[in-house]
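for the writeup, i need someone to sanity check this before i put it in the appendix. the sequnce is what the collaborator sent (i think, or maybe the updated version? ugh). structure was predicted straight from it, no edits. if anything looks off just tell me and ill rerun, i have time this weekend
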Amino acid sequence: MIVCIAEKPSVARDIAKIIGATSQRQGYMEGNGYQVTWTFGHLCELKMPDDYTPMWKAWSLSSLPIIPQRFGIKLIEQSSIKQQFAVIQQLMLAADGIINCGDAGQEGELIQRWVMQKAGATCPVKRLWISSMTDEAIREGFEKLKDQDEYRPLYMAGLSRAIGDWLLGINATRLYTVKYGQGRQVLSIGRVQTPTLAMIVNRQKEIDNFKPEPYWVLATIYRDTQFTATSGKFMSKEEGEKAFATIADKPFSVTDVQKKNGTEAPRQLYDLTSLQVDLNRKYGFSAEKSLNLIQSLYEKKLTTYPRVDTQYLSDDIYPKCPQTMNGLFKTTFDGQHPYADLVKKLSGKPLKKSKRVFDTSKVTDHHAIIPTGVTPQGLGDDEQKVFDLVARRFIAAFYPDCKFATTTVLGMVEDIEFKVSGKVISDQGWRVVYAGQGATVTHEKGDSPQDAAAENTGDERTLPDFAKGESGTHMPTLTEKTTVPPKHYTEASLLRAMETAGKFVDNDELRAAMKENGIGRPSSRAGIIETLFKRNYIRREKKNIVATSTGMELIDVIHEELLKSPELTGIWEKRLRDIEHGGGSPEEFINGLKEQVTEIVKQVISDNTNRHVTAPPATKEKEKPAKGRSKTAETISKRLRAGMKCPLCGKGKVIKGNTAYGCSRWNDAQEPCRFRKPF
């Protein structure tokens, strides 16, 4: 018997249907020589310090650094997990072979290998590797199963990441809590969490310490068109008034007229971060909500694997694109066919094949996020919004470039030069896909000094016809303005900053090159941001992210640059990527971290200053009742305890997980209950 193990019951059901395992059993399905079972995400975790020795249970400086000789794993302490693991272990010990059907990524590989190790499985293992959950993709995947050994570097990278996070998180959190927390609160330190918080705190300090300064801008209106002085702003009123007086009664002369034709290529396809950024910009969705929505679309077979960091497709996807377009052509929302006319314009000739879209060399495990061609049915409003962005980005990729003409006019009054630019679109090209959508903007003005360049749209206004040498009267103006502080991070701009280790990079190609040195993985960044919210180190003010007093004091008390530097964390991330691709040493990475942790412990313990964090935890944001949940259920959930009847379905029991209470029927194969209440 061949045992297939998936990451969720719903995925297991999809796989079982394709391979003929149609008989339902307790904790698995069976048939056609297969047994298909599942995990609930992580069933195992790294052992905690007191699992190695009771001496490591108490938090004390004398026990640090905590570095086990050999790391071990254990089952997560939940009755539902223990029950399902017993089923998995029984199946695996009797199996002739195992097929790892976990999520096709680093985390999925780690989850399933830990379960197999804990179960003591010894039979041969194959790997199912697919980028979408369509029936066709599952069938193709089973026809191309690979030996699990081919994915060992992926597992070693995941294992190295987990051990590295454990080493730094356990030791630094205990170290700072005992040394500087004064016993009042846990000071949580993390390999990715703390550098991310440091970026937010540093931005907050820039804003808090900012002192606005006045400046003056010289401009003039000639033929109903405003020209601005190219000399820039004046920092004193006297200087500006002097320049104003120079030009007040003198004629304006056009010195140069330049007309240039240009093109603008379609936006690149979505990776996870760029999709999260656009969803935050357009709809205000949090990074975590966006991840959950695109994951839901993936599991519904509508979009491809979401946890990706590439914006390219491999060449073998090109022949399948017409079929995907056909699925979009048939898509109906509220009785309308939103993509039919757009797809129809592409029919009758081969789809364009651009290197900005198809480049196998820039695709490793998975390609960019695109629709699968399966026609959507019964999507919620938010799911529909996500699908619409992905669908339009895919369609636009095959449209021609947008064509425009740019006119730049230079003028002189005495010895002061003025300039104005205008841009006229002559052919909308790919922009017709977004007509009336407002979905092409990928940067929010004010996020960084480079935002204007990110728009790539220029000043879209028509200028009068100017001729070189013409001259006439004009109306000069001197306008007082004030410098403004940097913008707060939003979740969108914070995701971009994490992607490039704190550096503002608007160019798509350059940003892609820097992704290897970003902090965190695309799939983990949303969770990191949410962790900072839950620990009251940051808070939301509308769309802005603001550091709390606790978060600011925590960063101030950390003098060890290694713990809070995005650049250094980006270097660690690069080494983990090297391990994943078979070019790095897990042993060197872990041993290096052990040395660094040991050195940090020595430095902090020897600190004789009176540094400490005094600010109490900030008040948690009030949670609004979840949509569709009754007020009674919300009220009851505030005084939850393990073992009580589920306040939502009334059938299951409340169980306590690592970060939340939930219903024991959360992963029930027949009638799941989605009740969940974070601590």
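The CA atoms of residues 62 and 159 lie 28 Å apart. The longest strand covers residues 252-264.
thx in advance!!
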